Amino acid sequence: MQVDQFCDEIKSLLGDFMLERSSFANGEFGDLERVELEGLNKLVTVDFWSKGWIAIDVYDCPSEQQIMNVLLSPEEVGFVSEAFDRLMNILVASKGKIIHLNLFG
Hints:
Elements (H helix, E strand, L loop, with lengths): L2 H9 L6 E10 L2 E10 L2 E8 L4 E7 L4 E8 L7 H13 L13
Antiparallel strand pairs: 1-2, 2-3, 3-4, 4-5
């Protein structure tokens, strides 16, 4: 999964969220591409490192709780689709929808 693919897939699904991208060189797991989402009382960061690591963090503002915090190594590629499905369902739950992204199909 690459940051461009993620952004392309979610833009049409998450119109209620502001999306911001940023880049950082020479991080712990290589160069970092970060996607930040804000909307519907959620703050989200999705990090894509050049060495294949992916991190997902979701904070729910009303409850003041972190509701998802996942760090996937390159060897855990089998869990990436499941993690992104979980993320997307958290983000669209307030709209009463359940979705499945076919990010690898």
